[in-house]
Amino acid sequence: MLRPDGATCRTIRCMAVPRSGVNAIDVGGAPMLLTVTGGGDAIHLARTADSSSPGQSAVPDFYFDTSRRWDSTAVANYTAAELLAPRWAETTLCGRVWAVMAGGEGGPLREDGEVAFAPTCRRCLTLIDRYYPKPPADPRFSLVAQLAADVVCEQGFAEVRGVPGDQQTELRKEIRKLVRDRTGHTTKTFCRDSTVYIECREVYSQHAAEHARAGAEAISEYLAADGEPRPRRPADWVVSWETWNVD
Ligand SMILES: [Zn+2]
User: What is the dihedral of CA 105, 25, 121, 113, to 10 degrees?
Assistant: First the structure.
């Protein structure tokens, strides 16, 4: 367009900005909504509602009520139909009642809100494991689990070194089961880097006198050798994942 003074007048066109849908992540093929609860800052996960429950929408209806200007402006980047669809379970994976979806690609849902793209609740993070298919068991899995369980049943503790990350959860589970089946006792397992530690208090206390005697013998041998280092007792509580490479 030519203005009377000859200058060209620019027209600015509004580009249609695509609106965002729900802020969900894919967990083993299942969508899970990132949510916040009434208390605390943690980001939790909610799965889709099962057919027996009515389902909850990602945000309450009033978020899109244009008569409440102070609330409704921040959600303008989101598609109302998607956020108001009652698709979600009423509690988080960790069992809490959740309040509202965490802001995602469309920005905060309220002017004072935040955005999040991953869960931070430790319990929810632990529980999503069960939604992923189990990793295929390594060929040495059963053997190593048996060996470690043998050691725990004999001494009350064991450690398995060099366990690949994707085998650790199942290995800990399997050793706990084997020891429980054989002794009736529960065990605690810990994991640090690639080492899995297993301890059974009951079995350990049954052998406490032996452990004390072995310790006393080691000390007296050390003293008898005038402080010279002696060959150490082999670490017979250690099972090495790498040693048992079977094809
Ligand atoms: Zn949680």
Answer: 20
